[in-house]
Amino acid sequence: MEAYCLKCKQQREVKNAEEVMTDKGLRRLKGQCSVCNTNVSKMLGK
Ligand SMILES: [Zn+2]
């Protein structure tokens, strides 16, 4: 899984990736950037 890292300003591999459900019923991927360990998240849609 990849997500955009705000610190690297690039798509990065996500480690400890975890899918969470938002209160609007949308799925979101949460994890850390594999390069700089910044928290990243990405909307996955319905
Ligand atoms: Zn990063």
Number of domains: 1
- The N- and C-terminal alpha carbons lie at a distance of 17 Å
- Average pLDDT figure: 95
Gyration radius (Cα, Å) is 10 Å
Number of β-strand runs? 4
Strand content: over 45%
Ligands bound, unique: zinc ion
Quick structural gist:
Helix content is 0%, strand content 65%.
Describe this structure in words.
The chain is mostly beta strands and 46 residues long. The chain has one domain (2-45). The chain contains no helices and 4 strands. Strands 1-2-3-4 form a 4-stranded antiparallel beta sheet, with no helix packed on it. The protein is elongated and about 30 Å long. Bound molecules: zinc ion. Zinc ion binds next to loops.
Topology:
Blueprint: E1 2-5, E2 10-21, E3 27-33, E4 39-45
Antiparallel strand pairs: 1-2, 2-3, 3-4
The site of zinc ion (ZN) has 8 residues, from loops.
Features:
46 residues, mainly beta, four-stranded antiparallel beta sheet, 4 strands, elongated, binds zinc ion
